[in-house]
Each structure stands twice: as C-alpha cells, then as structure tokens.
Amino acid sequence: MDGAVPLFRMEGISKRYGGVRALEKAELSVEAGSIHAILGENGAGKSTLIKVMSGVVAPDEGRMMLDGREVAFASPGAANKAGIACIFQELSLVPDLSVADNIVISDPPKRFGMIDRKAQRRLAEEALARAGAEDIHPLALVKDLPLSRRQMVEIAKALARKPRILILDEATSALTAADVSKIFAVLKRLRAEGLALLYISHRMNEIAELADQCTVFRNGRNVASYPAGTKSDNEVVELMIGREYSHVFPPRPPATVPSAPPVLEARALSWNERLNDISLSIRAGEVVGLGGLDGQGQRELLLAFFGVLRGLSGQVLIDGKPVSIASPAAARRDGIGMALIPEDRKTEGLMLPMTVRENLSFAALDRLSRGGIIDRAAEQRLIDDMVGLLAIKTAGLDAPVGALSGGNQQKVVIAKWLMRQPRIILLNDPTRGIDVGTKQEIYQLMRKLADQGATILFYSTDYDELIGCCDRVLVLYDGAVKRELVGAEITERALISSALNIDARQGAEA
Amino acid sequence: MKDWRYWLAEQRGTLLAFAIFIVMFVIYTSNHPAGFNANVVQTAANKGVLLAFVAMAQTLVVITAGIDLSVGMIFLLTNCLASWLVVGTPAQTALGVIAVLAAGVLCGAINGAIVIYGRLQPIVATIATGAVYYGIALLLRPFPGGSVNEDLADALTGRVLGVVPASLVVLLVIVLVVWVPFSRSVLGRAAYASGSSETAAYMSGVPIRRGKFAAYTLAGLLSAIGGLFLTFFTYTGEAAYASGNSYTLFSIAAVVLGGVSLFGGKGSAIGAIFGALAFRTIGDLLFVFDFDPLWQPLFQGGILLLAVSLGAFALFRVRNRLEWFL
Fold first, then answer.
1. Which of A149, B108, B174, B187 has the most CB within a 10 Å radius?
2. Does the residue A460 lie in any domain?
C-alpha cells in the first residue's frame, strides 16, 4: 500500500454549521479492495464526513482527491457519477415507486427515449440477487415493505450503480440477523472485487468481523487510524473519550430520597420493533437521562409516553396507577400533567410566523380562557412571569418567534410548557444547536424544576450533559435499556462503552 | 405474489374510476329516451373530452405534489385565441392550431418556471397566472364571437366510420403521444419521484427540476388541446369566467375520482380521464331522471365528497400519529 496513490483521499476538510464545528481539518484515505470502519461517538463528525464525501454538503475548506485528481461534488448526483454510492438509512427511497423503479432511479435503462421496463426489471433482479434479497419482488411498492426489506432495497440500489466506493452508514441497524450475515458475505465479495468500502457502525462485533482498517473520529477530527484487530475494545473507547468540556453544571443533590414513590413508570413497553421491552421508573425530584447512540429508540420512548404512538404494548403508570394516554392533549391533562420539549423546535415546538405571545400561551390556553374567550390579563401575567423566569430576550412579545435566536426560541418552547406547571417533563435533546450560555441556563432550570418536585426524563446526544445533569442515566441500545448508571457511575467511558454495547463491567472498572 | 397482482394494485385507482364510469354510463343510457345509440354516445363523448383534457393536465401537476389552478384559464385563453387563428385555408388553419398549442405550452412553461425557479407555492403562483391568462382572454374576446374552420371542427367532433366519436379517437391519440411517453420517460419518473418524496429524489440524483418543469409545460399543452376542442364544439371564442373556474375545480374533482393522490407521486392520467367522464355522466344522470337542474351541483358535490372520503381510510393504519401531518 505504501507509496501508492489511495483511491480516495480527503485533506484538511472543515465544515461548520453556524457556530458549531462539525469537522475540523479532517483527513481520510480510502484504499481499493478494503473495508474501512469509521468510529466515533455522537457528534464526532462521522455523518458530516459522509455527507461531504457523497456530495450532500459542500465543505468549507479542504480538498478531496479521487485517483489522485482533485474533485468537488455539487450534488449527490455528481458524487454518484464519480462512483461514490452511499447507503443512507432509508432516506433515499421514493415510497410511491416500485422496488425496480427505485433501484435504477439514478440512471434508468432507456430504449427510444423511454424507460425500458424489461431491462429495468432485469437490472433490478440482478441487483437484488447481488444483495442477497431475492425474496423482494421488483414490482412491490417501497412503501408497502417493512423497514428491514427497505434497507435491503437501499443496498441493492447502491450496488446497481456499480460504485467504486460504497459508504454504509449504520446500514445494518434495521436488519434481521439473517440479512446481516447475507450482507456481510456480499460486502466481503465486493472487497474481493476491488471496491473500497467505508463502514460506519456502532456494533463493535461487526467491525471486528469486517474491517481491515479503522479510523476513530472525535470532535470533528480523525484522532487515530490503525489496522483492524490491533486495538482492544477498551483502547478504542479510550480514543473516543475526551470531548472538550465547556459547560458548567449545577451541583447535583447528594442523592434523591429513595423512599419517594415513583411518578412515571413503564412496564415492558414495546412498539414496532423500535422499542423492545422497556421498563423504567422515575421518582419526583429526579433527573433521569436517556443515553446511547442516536436513533436507538430514545425519541420513540418519549413519544410513547406522550401519547403519540399507536399500537403500544406494555404499560405506562402514573403515580403507580396504569393509564392509557391517547394523545398529547390527554398527556397534558391535570391528572397526568406531562410536557414534551420536542427535538425539532421549528416543526414540533413553535409556530414560527406567529408572535412570541401566541406561542407562549398555546399549551395553556385552556387554563387561561373562560367560555372560549382568552383572559388577556391572566395571559399577560403568566407570560411576564415566564419571560422573567427564563430571561427570554425578544424585541417584544408581538415579534414573530421566528425572529428570535435559536437559544431564545428554545426558551420559548420550554416556557410554553412551564406555563402549565407540568409534573412530568420529557426533554428530547433540547440543547441541540443552541449557544453555550442558553445551554447552561437550561441545565440550571432543569435542576431547579426537579428540586421543586418535577419528574424529568431527559434525552441528550451530548454525553457531557448526561454526566453533568442527571441523577441516573439509562443507556438504550436497539430499543432496549442496556444499562443503568447511577451517580458517580455516570462517566464518559461508561456511557460510550455501554452505548456501543461493549461488555458493561469492563467499562465500569477502568 | 404474482406480477399481475402488483399491476392490479398499481392500477386500482384507474380501474375503480373506470368501473364508476361504466356503471354511471349504463344507468344513463338505459334511462335515456333515445337509448344506447351512436348519437347519444357522440354527444356524451364531446362533452366529456373537454373535461378529460383539462383533467389530464391537472394530473401531471398533481403528480408532482403541486396543483394548477390556471388550467381552466389556459383552456379559455386558447379557446379565444383559436377563435381568431384557426380559420382560413387548410394551411392557415394548421398554422393556427400550432400557434394555439404553442400558446398553451408557453402558459404552462411560465407556471413551471415560477413554481420551480421562483420557489412560489403552486397554488399561489397559478392563481396569479390564471388571472393573467384570463385577462388576456378577455382582451382577445371582450364579447363572445369569432369563428373556426368548420370543416376541421365538424370532422373532429363528428364520427369515424359512422360509429366511433372522433373526439374519443383524438383523446386516445393524445394519450398515446403525450401521456404514455411522459409516464415512461426519465422526466416522468422524476415528476413522480419528486411528488412522492422530494428529499429521496434529490438524494438519488433525480432531475427533479426538469421533471417538474416538463409536467407544468405539458399541462399547458393539454389545456390548450381542451381549449381547441371547445372552439370546435362552439364555433366561437368566449372568455366566460365562471366556465373557466368550474373547469379548474372539476379537473381537481376528476383527478381525485380517478385515483390520483393529491399528496403526489401516485396515479395516472388515464384514471383522471375516466374520473372526468364519470363526473360528467353524474351530472347528466339528473337529466334523464327529470330532476330539476338546480339539484345538479348538490348531487355532484355529494358524489365527490363520497369519493374523496375513500382516500382517507389509510390514516387508520398509521402507528405514529406524527405521520398524520407529513
């Protein structure tokens, strides 16, 4: 390998989103005929790296070389033409088109200017066979297929493009064990055929079986590259640890009173293969974190509590009594008193063109009105309280909420729910994409609310926050609670190793 | 599953519209005083194809998850234009036809450019352009009038071989030369893909913009063909505002009846054609049963409401309620 020009090389790639740097002078070399694994915790820059490689985002600086020649991709289509195919997580299939239509979508076979359906069918069947998914009918509509089959179509689609570099981003997370072994055989064959494969996965055993080379990312940089099998799992975790601490957290109380009765409980909660037999119990005054790599069922768990999901099995108990919460409106009712601070404030939290005042009072309108008429004076008092409590900076209450900074928008979302004085507060990654100052105010507020007796369930993709804010952390993996960390056990090492489902005891000892 | 089952599932909307039409038409002709004969069929066909052309136009745009509220006005504008241009010698008439069709293409292209490159919502953009097209139509024909090459008009609204309505033959030809190639071309597939999931289409490197532009432009062309036929039936041009508006609204009704999803990505213009023919027949049913014509809008509305309600059943299967709003 030495001295030869790598098939693909990235040099000094940087990318910033607003004030957040996702990649910082990242380097990567990919060799033909090998499988290269990329490791890193949430926010380490893995997904941005892939997006840059596959033409979804343009880097701020740096260069990319294919066969030693500098390249730049204006769109995913351009990256495709250059021979880079990326398997996204069910993102790139068109639901209303058939499997065959989807497989050839980038470059359908043509005859007399029209799509040649016979040739299309043949290509699709070949690609499905290559991916080991002959059971999928090429005429089936993608939207009628279960998730694991869609993922196989996605893989077949990438193979149909005859790529030179194939990127798999958590491509196996939705697959059944039988599919995974088929895919592994396919990937090994592709390697033998001389393709370069970039493999992103949180499953250490998969990486051990497949990879030739590994690169670890941390804080947007590649921190280590090594031949697979030369480092132990613990050494790998060691490389992933070391985020720069920049936040100050409020002091944690010594320990919550264990005698307080549980307020929010789940027993054997399951849903659509995304939640598997989750049981948990949270007392008043506790801040409990949800950890694990992104997309392991944390979001679905919060939605399940908040009455958004249908067809749940298992039980939810409030104050020890079984309840059935059929909608967000039911979840916020007095006996339950639940609030959910959603992940995407722009779509699920705020009505952006409406005023700060209107947004603040939406969740509490039933309490502020009599006979359907809003009591303006009561509304004003409560709004003033909230703006004061959260120090929301706005040009005025009648300014559109969309004009506020990200941090202040998020404060409005939180304040809107605090107006109801909820007893149970669910937070879905509330500090994503907001400034450090506001983050710290949110940490303070969470602790204050807990001290006043609220029950808080807090999902964060930032391990720092879980360490700094939570009394307990439940680490989710594949929709199930893999590990519970209490108090001083909550360390970055323990969080990362349990998130990767590496032997839990090992992680705790070190 | 066998291939034919997938084909059946794909064509379900079209077949349902076809079935509704056949049932309605059988009821209609069996109660018609003259019964089922070539004259009755010819009259019904001539009324039906006008809406069928406009509904085909609407289908193309709806497939991209857009909506075109200017189709009725393009229909009027090309009618008024045809009443000036499609006259004289055969050569002049031919040039006139080409000019009218070109005007329709231009109108559609303007819609497409505004929606795609101006990034305006289709509903707003086409209300505005529709008003402009109507304005031009009104200037062309402040009062009903004009004329058309009557030989051509009679040939295209008459019968072929004494039985088959010529207008249906033209409709079939248009389906074969416009719809079939489009639906099987890369651009057509791009239109479907962008209507179904624009993100996925983009990530797959599909030519989204060109696909949408083709859809809007062809919608202009099909509306113009409708406008030409209107001229052939009436021998005049008329900028009748109410008529333009009702063609626009009925085209949406026909599209829905024809199994085309207003969410985009699903359906066929052939379904929309049967939707249009069925919708027309529903209106005519009242006449053969001697109802007061005053009942017609109410009756049509009721049938339409029933048809669109069928499409909502899928919502009962959604397991994550947030998907209701996608």
1. B108
2. yes
Query: Does A396 reach chain B within 8 Å, measured CB to CB?
Result: no
Nearest residue to B83 (alpha-carbon basis) of B69, B68, B103: B103
Query: CB contact, 8 Å: B161 with chain A?
Result: no
Q: How far apart are CA B291 and CA B287, in angstroms?
A: 6
Q: What is the ipTM of this complex?
A: 0.83
User: What is the domain-level CATH number for residue A214?
Assistant: 3.40.50.300
A323 and A355 in a single domain? The answer is no
CB proximity list for B165: less than 8 A, separation 6 or greater: B41, B42, B45, B46, B158, B159
- A185 and A232: one domain? yes
In the A/B pair of chains, how many CB contacts fall below 8 A? 101
Q: Are residues A363 and A486 in the same domain?
A: no
> What distance in Å separates the CA atoms of residue B62 and residue A191, rounded to the nearest whole number?
44
**b/e for B57-78, b at 16 or more Cβ within 10 A?**
bbbbbbbbbbbbbbbbbbbbbb
Please report the pLDDT score of residue A507 as a whole number: 40
Mark whether A427 and A405 lie in a shared domain: no
Contact predicate A152/A92, CB 8 Å: no
Band of the pLDDT at A263, cuts 50, 70, 90? very high
- pLDDT value, residue A504: 47
Whether residue A24 is found in the same domain as residue A96: yes
Q: pTM of the full predicted structure?
A: 0.79
Check CB contact under 8 Å for A95 and B265. Answer: yes
- Check whether A510 has a pLDDT greater than 50: no
Q: Which of A395, A421, A447 is the last residue of a domain?
A: A421
User: Contacts of residue A106 in chain B, CB cutoff 8 Å?
Assistant: 204-206
For A430-472, how does the pLDDT look when each residue is reduced to its tens digit (9 = 90+)? 887 777 778 888 899 999 999 999 999 999 988 888 998 999 9
- Give the pLDDT mean for A104-111: 88
Span of A202-211, B167-176, B307-316 with lowest mean pLDDT: B307-316
Residue-number span of the structural domain to which A269 is assigned: 261-337+422-510
Looking at every residue in chain A, the average pLDDT score rounds to: 86
Map residue A455 onto helix, strand or coil.
Answer: strand
Closest partner residue to B265 (CB to CB) among A78, A93, A96 is A96
Tell me which residue in B185, B196, B206 faces A96 most closely, judged by beta carbons.
B196
Rounded to a whole number of angstroms, the distance from the CA of A342 to the nearest CA of chain B is: 12
Measured between CA atoms, how close is B136 to chain A, in angstroms?
36
* Pair (A26, A129) in one structural domain: yes
Q: Are A366 and A333 part of one and the same domain? A: no
Residue A348 with chain B: CB contacts under 8 Å? 322
Q: Count other Cβ atoms within 10 Å, centred on residue B155.
A: 13
